[in-house]
What does this fold into?
Amino acid sequence: MRNLRQTFMIPLVSVLTFFIVNITNFPEDALSNDKVSSTTETNWGLHTTTFTTAEGKIKVNFPDDMAAGDTISGTVIAEPAGTTLEERERNSDELNGYVVEVEAEDKTVKEASVKTKFLTGVAIPAGLAGGVTTLVLKDTQGKIVAKTQIPVQPEPPAIETPSVPTSDDFQLPSVGQAGRPIEVSGPFDGNIDTTAVKVGGSDVEVLAESPRKVVVQSPRDVVGPTEIEVKEANVVAKGEMNNLKVSLSADRTTLHKGEVATLGVRVSGLEGLQNPVPLILTNETPEVVNMQGGNYQVINITPAETQEGGTYFIERSLTAIQTGGFNIWAQIEVRKQKERQEKPPDVVLMKEKKPCGSIKGIIHVKTKRKYRLRTVVYLEGLCTPCGSDGSPETGEMTLDVLSKKLPGFQPSFLAMPKGSSLVIRSIETKEITHIPYAIPPDGENMISLGHLEKGERKTLNLSESGLYFLHDSIHKFEDGRVFATPNSCFAVAKDDGTYTIEDIPPGKYTIAVFTYPKRTKFPRAEVTVTAGKTTIQDLALTR
It folds into this structure.
């Protein structure tokens, strides 16, 4: 779904999950103790880092378009744990003593306590390399208990910035979703102290701001046609908006193989809309259930199909392939109410965005032909290729025990970035059962994917970087390998040993090599990537 999202669209998502929930996160914390962990997730126009402590959760929101050289603002929100009001109040008092710090320009540090809530006017260093900045959590004693990294674009996007902003320069949403973040694009200053947004006449919570947009929380108690008002400094923009409520339900919450559940999808608040609204249904667990009409569907809700009271309702059957939980997403995407006006005479064009660079070279090794085909060259740390939105990738292996040419897992070796999904599909011509399983890089906990019948698929989430071993409990010789790289900046060496990693943001990196079988030392080297240029870096595999 993320691959279809465009910059002029606003995502509205409702999720139905039973029994199992799968979430793909951005790289996990670089430092944490036994009591505090952290994950960073990108959604709804935000980078949201969640620190989980013994007293509850601390969520830090930043705009997902933050770039080197930007001035941005974010928020710190506490969610105290506890089953009683007394426990939650006690844990809230403890959480209020925690402090969040983020590295700013000239190595200065901006901080905010959970109690003060706001991180305002954070100047992201202009020369930031590697595409990340550091976020630190300190406890009530001032001790660092967790440290993580959040992604930063290497340069701000090249957009037109009006020298004197007017209300026409702001792109207001035509719809929002009750209780979910919504985005307003326009010439902001990155400081939430100068920004105010109202929906239905009431102030809404500002979550994050960059020089190009603000993200706010749409109210839960407003459903249907309403007004949105945005004030940035002395400029006020107003428009009409429908705040939609998307609800999912199912008549059964646990399914066994062959059983059927009925999924209900209801959209409320549609009254008065003149244009079709795309409703997108996605079955995130196709290995567990099949959804009637397909596991990915786009349904255009037309004004004629809207029922009395501004509602729309459909049903879909879910048939269990195996026992387990299922995860269904319902998402609405609509255009913003206002598109940018033609460039007025006083518009100043920002400097053109510089291109990214690349690295290429040769892997020198004296070995068999297939050895090089299992050699991966990658950049360590964090790296998001230029033009990529950082969305998780999907790859596929097939299983065919009867094949005389290529039996077993094919291809037998793959390289994919951490966070990707590997689909294993049976292409048997006869009724043959497989029980595929994976041994993750830590080598500790085997990941069983259950029974795989003819024509079925199973999905393996590559949640950590390193080498995954794939096996079949029934057909012992069917082995496969998947190397999960730390990021999407990598390449698999060709037969002649050459490689090229393209679309790399400028900066300093450590380049590394992995090869299978592990019969050599893995070389590493420091490289500098320059915009618009190719860096030559040869590497040698030695015993």
Q: What stands out?
A: The two ends are 45 Å apart (CA to CA). The chain is about 5% helix and 50% strand. Helices lie at 85-95, 369-372. The longest strand covers residues 235-250.
